[in-house]
Amino acid sequence: MRNVMKIIFLLASLMGLAFSASAQEASTTSDTDATIRYELGSGDQIRVIVYGEEDLSGEFELDGTGIISMPLIGATRVGGLDLDRAEQLIAEKLADGYLINPRVSVEVMNYRPFYILGEVKKPGSYPFVNGMTILNAVALASGFTYRAAKKKITITRKVDGVDTDIEVTDATLVLPGDIITVPERFF
């Protein structure tokens, strides 16, 4: 069972999916311990709700360094954190001299875009949509050019803060911030 968990984690890592630390060290009792988490990043727009404190709630965009600026607590780095950890961090900062037992909720309003480069008719930046595959992304970019190497498409994705190149299929899911490269074929 332990080997199965290692294989699942390895395959997910190759696919570019981020797992929480607890999933990496999951016990051998359950396969459901491995939960996928979304990490906030530069360009994401989030809504922070501090219950009972409308003046502290609002919508914020993560800057290039993953920081938002909130009333009372100021600049707070939430880039690289999942939503649960971002909620905890904001609540901790608010509890440090400002509020008693703050209840905080964070949700993503708009995901950062993904990018598609190379042999597509309209390369560029496109808005992310949940459930989007490589084939959907290519369709948004008006399709392949006649020179596209359709079987050698790669995604550059941040995995644990490191840019990782991943070979994909038409059905591979696209995540926010992905850079899809469609290379040119030689023959």
Characterization of the model:
The longest helix is centred in the first third of the chain and has 14 residues. The protein has 187 residues and is an alpha+beta fold. The chain has three domains: 32 residues; 66 residues, wza like fold (2-Layer Sandwich), CATH 3.30.1950; 69 residues, Outer membrane lipoprotein wza fold like (Roll), CATH 3.10.560. A five-stranded mixed β-sheet has the order 7-6-10-8-9, with helices on one face. A three-stranded antiparallel β-sheet has the order 2-1-5, with helices on one face. The chain has four helices and ten strands. The radius of gyration is 19 Å and the shape is elongated.
> What is the string of SSEs from the N terminus onward?
HHEEEEHEEEHEEE
**Largest sheet data:** 5 strands, mixed
Proportion in β-strands = 25-35%
Q: Regions with pLDDT < 50 over 5+ consecutive residues?
A: 1-36
Task: Find the CATH topology of the largest domain.
Answer: Outer membrane lipoprotein wza fold like
Number of helices: 4
InterPro entries: Poly_export, Poly_export_N, Soluble_ligand-bd
Domain Polysaccharide export protein N-terminal: 37-108
Signal peptide: 1-23
Protein name: Polysaccharide export outer membrane protein
Question: What's this entry about, in short?
Answer:
The chain is of the alpha+beta class and 187 residues long.
